[in-house]
Amino acid sequence: MRRLFHRYRIPIIYVTHDQEEAFSLATQAALLHEGRIIQTGSPAELTARPATSWVAKFLALGNLIPARVVRSRPMRVETECGILPALAYSPSARVGKTGWLLLRPGGGVLRPGAVRKSGGIRGVVTDCSLRGSGYEAVLQCGLVEIKASADKPAAIGATVAWHPQIGQFLCE
After folding, report:
1. How many CB atoms neighbour CB 45 within 10 A?
2. Chain mean position to CA 158
3. Which of 73, 78, 80, 124 has the most CB atoms in a 10 Å sphere around its CB?
């Protein structure tokens, strides 16, 4: 279908609840929630810069942790797992603002032991399973559960430090 859509260059509105199908066919997409358009853009734009926590959750982009902005430049947010660096694409992300920190499971570094630099999260491994060519570890950090990708299996019960890529602060 994708080849047909592009070959004939006819605008097509295609409605589906299947995210994989939608993103494989679309050049532009609109995400609707409760009858309202929440965000529009290319599939790449929607996954790279979700506008809200609902979009991030709907697209299963990663860990969403309650956060509060404690510094604006460079941005730092306070979470149950510590103070972490963040990016924000919304002008309303000011000091004192509460929202969500989106931390993607991939791209970070998982190591045994304590956090050695700022921006790291210390947690206890509660589960670890093979996912494709790597592993997914589930960490407990206070009341927050975090999924983190790892190159090697992590022992259940072990205390580890995860240094994720910089997160994105979402106001909603």
Report:
1. 14
2. 24
3. 78
Beta strands in the chain (DSSP E): 29-33, 36-41, 63-72, 75-79, 82-87, 98-103, 109-112, 121-131, 134-141, 144-150, 159-163, 167-170
CA-to-CA distance for 112 and 124, rounded, in angstroms? 10
Look at the block and give the residue holding tokens 């920190």. 101
User: What is the reported pTM?
Assistant: 0.89
Give yes or no for a contact between 50 and 168, defined as CB atoms under 8 angstroms apart: yes
Write down all domains in the chain, each with its CATH number in brackets. 1-48 (no CATH), 103-164 (2.40.50.140)
For 16, 30, 69, 97, 106, the CA distances from 19, given in Å and listed in that order, are 8, 11, 31, 31, 20
- pLDDT single digits (tens) 138-166: 999 999 999 999 999 999 999 999 999 99
Structure tokens at 44: 């790449």
- The alpha carbons of the chain give a radius of gyration, in whole angstroms, of 18
Token pair in block for residue 58 = 């709907």
Residues of the chain with pLDDT below 50 are: none
Which of 170, 161, 151 is CA-nearest to residue 111? 161
Q: In the structure encoding, which two tokens stand for residue 35, read together?
A: 């009858």
Beta strand pairing status for 82-87 and 167-170?
Answer: parallel
